[in-house]
Amino acid sequence: MAAVMLFNACGKTSDESTGGNPPADAKLTDVVLTQNLTFPWEILWGPDNKLWITERGGKISRVDPASGTITPLATLPDVVSQGEGGLLGMVLHPDFSATPEVFVAYNYNKGGAYTKKIVKFTYNGTTLVNPVVLLDNIPAAGIHNGTRLAISPDKKLYITSGDASVSSRAQDQTNMAGKIQRINLDGTIPADNPIAGSALWSFGHRNPQGLVFVGDRLYSSEHGNTTDDEINIIQKGRNFGWPNVEGFCSTSAEQGFCSVNNVAEPVYAWTPTIAPSGIDYYNNDAIPQWKNSLLLAVLKDSELLQLKLSADGSKVEAVNTFYKGTYGRMRDVAISPAGDVYIITSTGNNDKIIKVTRTP
């Protein structure tokens, strides 16, 4: 049920119907806000009313959402960008004005081993200072790093970690690859985690690259192998199946594994695969047809997807497609309080921030 809407970089608008929505739906305008980025990974809306971005080579910057002016904040010297690895996820402290802390995840070389760590910095108004390592020794690789961050309403930090190219790690609860981790904002382990002393929150993940809270419900997007890219609702202690289960528990072997291992099935899956990456939640009146939807940046199919959720948020009721093939591979999406949408591309050649607004 995908309706395709195509726009160009000059800001043309479209009045095509989006999946049969009523005529009162807002028309959209898209423009290139800024360009000349190199493999940006994270884009988020900061409490300072600026966009914050990471680039895989190690750069963290702020971007003016009106002019597109980029202000570099820091370049982290120990970041090692290898394949799809490098500087990846970032999130800001929810009480940023009082506690200006910036949480980042990146890959580096540790004793000759490619490794991921989670580091907390303090923003001093100009740059990032006082690095504190919160979590280390997460296996990394040139592929399947996952590495999106989110902070829950009760102020716990969640981290997605892919299997780092070794699928068996995902089912090994003693290995931090192929997991979603949960830690306190000071790096300690919450007492109510599934395994005492372990950051593990869920396991059986292949390469989860999107993560967003909607209230206290946590959604994740995940790359499948040759089939079954997924949208999951993450649950405490649950097994999400990889590599024994791809998508739903549909084959006889999968059904047997699922019944024994308490596997949580996705709420939506794609075959053929689309390569889903960053997600954010849209619930603003500015674009009414997107209310109560996940917005998903897609790499292989080079598009933005609107995933319309059911009223209770437990199902994806409709999928609508935007900008397919217009801007190239899309890595992440952010939403401003005014309801404007910002998308980063991921081609490695003149990457851009795309701004989508309601047409005046």
From TrEMBL:
InterPro entries named among the record's database cross-references: 6-blade_b-propeller_TolB-like (IPR011042), Glc/Sorbosone_DH (IPR012938), Quinoprot_gluc/sorb_DH_b-prop (IPR011041)
Location of the Glucose/Sorbosone dehydrogenase domain: 38-349
A Pfam family: GSDH
Protein's recorded name: PQQ-dependent sugar dehydrogenase
Taxonomic classification: Bacteria, Pseudomonadati, Bacteroidota, Sphingobacteriia, Sphingobacteriales
PANTHER family xref list: HEDGEHOG-INTERACTING PROTEIN (PTHR19328), HIPL1 PROTEIN (PTHR19328:SF13)
